[in-house]
Amino acid sequence: MVEKYQNPRALATAFLNPILELEPNQVASASCLNILLDTFDSAFQALGKLNINDLADVAYSYLLLSKLDSETKSLFENTSRSSSLLTYKETLKFIKEQARIYSMSPVNARSIVNKVSKSHNYFVEKVTSKLECVVCASTKQHLISQCDEFSSMGRFEKVKFLVSDVI
Asked: Which InterPro entries match (predicted)?
């Protein structure tokens, strides 16, 4: 039980989450500023009590890990079973190794293309209830496959756009 609550990596993650997930204030008010300060400062104070030598390095590692897909995150946790804090260099090394492994794997970009190449019609509805193309932001209602900007992209650009921005 003590091991669970004295895991520096888990604690740092728990304290970094509220800071990095804070939404910008939408209204200039005392209550919004107080909530911002309370949330940020309590997490900041808790991080300070962990006596982390290089908090920026740990935060960069956390940010990098937060951008990974769930499968790669699980692989990372399986290979980094230690509860010690990981450096940015260690995290970067793991991701570079995984990228090399994935690039040598037969299931690579082609499988992503096949997953994305199914016919999908994407529209984003704004508050004004006007439909807008997710690629060119045109209010002319058209399918993504009929978008000139999307059509001018190369195959891998399309996949990258769909995987990172839409799906």
From this structure: DUF1759
